[in-house]
Write a sequence for this structure.
């Protein structure tokens, strides 16, 4: 059996125009939970996404999606 890939989704709630409130639900509904373990994180301040991505790299996360 193949090991699940680990993913980190980074959402910036302040980027662009319009609400980002539907994004987490869309991700949850779209993910194949038999193939992926994942975490959803919202940025809280400028530069936070970069910090989260760097931490994911140290934790051997297979992919970061932002």
């Amino acid at each position: 059996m193949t090991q699940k890939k680990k993913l980190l989704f980074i959402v910036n709630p302040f980027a662009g125009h319009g609400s980002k409130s539907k994004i987490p639900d869309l991700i949850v509904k779209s993910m194949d939970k038999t193939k992926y373990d994942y975490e959803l994180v919202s940025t809280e301040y400028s530069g936070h996404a970069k910090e989260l991505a760097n931490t994911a790299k140290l934790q051997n996360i297979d992919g970061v999606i932002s």
